[in-house]
Amino acid sequence: MENGQTESDPKDLLFEKHVNYVTNHGNDKNDFEYTMTEFLRMSGIYWGTTCLDIMGELDKLDKLSIIGFIKKCQCIKSGGISACEEHDPHLLYTLSAIQILCTYNALDEIDVASVGKYVQSLQQPDGSFFGDKWGEIDTRFSFCAVAILALTNQMDLIDVDKAVEFVLSCGNVDGGFGSKPNAESHAGLIYCCVGFLSITHNLHRLETEKLAWWLCERQLKSGGLNGRPEKLPDVCYSWWVLSSLTIMGRSHWISGEKLKEFILSCQDTETGGFSDRPGNLPDIFHTLFGIGALSLLGYPNLKKINPTFCMPEEIVEKLYKVQIMDS
Amino acid sequence: MNTADISENEVFCEKVISELNKVISDPHASVQSFEIISVPFKQNKSPVRLVDHHLGIESWCLKYVYQHAHKYIINQRKLNRYPLTIVKYLNCAILINPDVATFWNVRRQLVEKVQLSLTQEFQFSHLVLSKKPKSSEAFFYRRWLYSFQSGEAIDWAVEISLCERCAERKNSNYHAWNHRQWVLQKAPNLLSYEIIKTEKFIRKNIADYSAYHHRHFVLTKLFDLQYFDIHDTNLNELYQFINCGQPDDKKINNVDDLALYLLPNVSVPSSPRQSINTVKLNSFYYFLNLIVHDLRMINTLTELHGKYEAFSCYRRIITKSAVDICRLTNSSNYMMTEQFIKNTSTKVAHDGIAQSVIVDILIKQLDMSDEHNVKFAELFL
């Protein structure tokens, strides 16, 4: 079988193993790996909490210490949130922090108004967003900006119309989207753009058929999905492609059964957790996106996940109404 | 570890960090690349190695050295100060872990205070890219550094070469190709050279779709800029493409017939020759000739290497752009001079009056026994 899949690959979700994998992740704080990944710690915590919440095991993590950590990461000067103490704030980690706080129903633990001002300060005249004060532009940051503002109910702080124009200007003739105008179409960035349009209720501006077709072309013989032509399948694209298709009401355009098989074959049967491809080492990032995609596919005993925010539906429902197209 | 071990470890780390720094800053060493050498256990010599301008560090010491450099930088941040000695720790930490934006940001602050020179920083980010050719932080840092230089003083071709090397070392290198587009935005005069460069690259890296995407960007951008090569008006590929399978008496072999053939709406008697914008016309021919050239290239590559997804994706997308541009040039005032448009109240041509035959030929060269092409044509053409 291609891509390292074998007959002995697991056919069911190793529920308990994954719970243990996520719960024990990062327990050894003196670990070299722990220091090396410090720069994305906040996102790591978001991947872990969301994953456990979808599996109904959120109480395995220590809520108070996580909230305490987030509070320490908010920058007093800018209002933005960093990945870790003594690191610089960035939209990427600000969104992760907000998502965790929403999961814990604890938004009032931080200064949400100054988070809003931070996001507002990063919008540019053409509608795009800097990721932080140093000025890099990317459609990922547009997604982060509106996601943060939607979850904290402060959307009126930015020029939404301009923001939409910028995102649409990153569309390509193949129907996909890239990180900037003219940048190659990429499934991860398509998720950001489709998610952005779902949050801003502008899905009708998409060329849905073309984009959905491009996304379908990402499914390979193994059932797995890649993010661009000629690339290998990767569990995280299971999430990005499938969530985009779900938002556009076209998830039935790919084979869910084959995708499920591929995702399940990426489980680590010893340690728990998912890797990018069968046989590789697992990590927390791919574990969330594996579980998230299985939830979208309706796998039993998983909470329903919201395709736009990648958070449990029951939490998003209380906070914001996203736009989803009918299938 | 007991206290003696800790201090021994610190002495060791300080030594390695200083040694790395000495090599990097030594103009005579002129280090070109950095690598981590896989050596699992401690050897009885320095883990820093320099061979012919190539710098390496043995993997076994990374965890000690990185933790040490990391601790120093974080402690300075806690004290909210950046002594110049922080640079050697930053060099070490970033070379080992180029993804840490905060460490790059410290460098930015030092550049702003003129404590680090631009030349030094270009060299350092170059070194990082030799280790990690897809480092988005390194590319982003270079764009930021360029904002301090005036446009005329920059040799952008050097930056294109850097992108090319990074793309060669890492397949589908999204950040390298994006950076290249950014350079071309700054230096559009380099766009025409990309025609030859990207073809060479594609022939060498046939499955790298990012390169095809970039070439498509270059071709359509050149058309938008109304570019054509005064010294190369050879349209043989285009004639060959159009005449393929035609009887001799129907073959086209001069520019007048070509205009009639490609632009039936524009070449009507009511629009005399002088009313046509010749720059746009030449650029249209030039573009179409390149598209046809690429379609032939894809055929050749398929014969040589068999089927590749990149081939079919590229064929589809250039077909789409060519069809769009043929329709555009043939169906509106696009080809007319401004003078002519001003003097005529009605459009010369309207959509659908005379569909250019070239559009049909372009669509027909897609293999319709392939269901992907059928679906593509239905959605896009």
TrEMBL record, chain A:
Domain of life: Eukaryota
Coiled-coil annotated spans: none
Cofactor: Zn(2+)
Cellular component aspect of the GO annotation: Rab-protein geranylgeranyltransferase complex
Residues in Prenyltransferase alpha-alpha toroid domain copies: 14-311
GO molecular function annotations of the record: metal ion binding; Rab geranylgeranyltransferase activity
Keywords: Metal-binding, Phosphoprotein, Prenyltransferase, Repeat, Transferase, Zinc
UniProt catalytic activity: geranylgeranyl diphosphate + L-cysteinyl-[protein] = S-geranylgeranyl-L-cysteinyl-[protein] + diphosphate
Pfam families registered for this protein in UniProt: Prenyltrans
UniProt-listed Enzyme Commission number(s): 2.5.1.60
Free-text cofactor note: Binds 1 zinc ion per subunit.
PANTHER family associated with the record: GERANYLGERANYL TRANSFERASE TYPE BETA SUBUNIT (PTHR11774), GERANYLGERANYL TRANSFERASE TYPE-2 SUBUNIT BETA (PTHR11774:SF11)
Stated role: Catalyzes the transfer of a geranylgeranyl moiety from geranylgeranyl diphosphate to both cysteines of Rab proteins with the C-terminal sequence -XXCC, -XCXC and -CCXX, such as RAB1A, RAB3A, RAB5A and RAB7A.
UniProt-recorded name of the protein: Geranylgeranyl transferase type-2 subunit beta
Species per Swiss-Prot/TrEMBL record: Chironomus riparius
TrEMBL record, chain B:
Keywords: Prenyltransferase, Repeat, Transferase
Xref: PROSITE patterns: PFTA (PS51147)
Molecular function terms, GO-annotated: protein prenyltransferase activity
Cellular component annotations (GO), alphabetically ordered: cytoplasm
Family: Belongs to the protein prenyltransferase subunit alpha family.
Name under which the protein is recorded: Protein prenyltransferase alpha subunit repeat-containing protein 1
UniProt source species: Chironomus riparius
Taxonomic lineage of the native organism: Eukaryota, Metazoa, Ecdysozoa, Arthropoda, Hexapoda
